[in-house]
Amino acid sequence: MRVRNLAVPGWKTINLLNALNNDQKFIQAVSKADYITLNIGSNDLLKPIKDAFVASGGNLDAETIVINNSLETLVHLYPGLVVANAYEIGLNPLNNLIPGDIHPSLVGHKKLAQIGLEALGLD
Questions:
Q1: Do 85 and 104 fall into the same domain?
Q2: Among 21, 23, 45, 61, which is 20 to 30 Å from 12 by CA?
Q3: Does an H or E element contain 25, and which?
Q4: Is there a single domain that holds both residue 57 and residue 104?
Q5: Which residues contact 1 (CB under 8 A, 6 or more apart)?
Q6: Exposure class string for 2-23: b at 16+ Cβ within 10 A, else e
């Protein structure tokens, strides 16, 4: 697969929406893509998961965390939309996150890639 990374550190949803509506580089890249992965706002999600893991003494399981269930509703509304449950990397922050940080480690990035491939049926 050819990958085109359009990430911009620090962007909020409004910045992405503006680029998708006004920036020709973004518009062309999205219109030509077979697959699009979108990740925005993860830092806001990973930090509470990491804090909960630490507070639990490492006994946190997926059932303890309530992730936005409306994502599943979107799958029914938009055919072809796939939700990859990437939040699970936060369940093992000692391996999947950079120590003292909320960003994925090399192991975490590999896990994210596998989650994405499985979600798209490309594993």
A1: yes
A2: 61
A3: helix 24-32
A4: yes
A5: 35, 122
A6: eeeeeeeeeeeeeebeebeeee
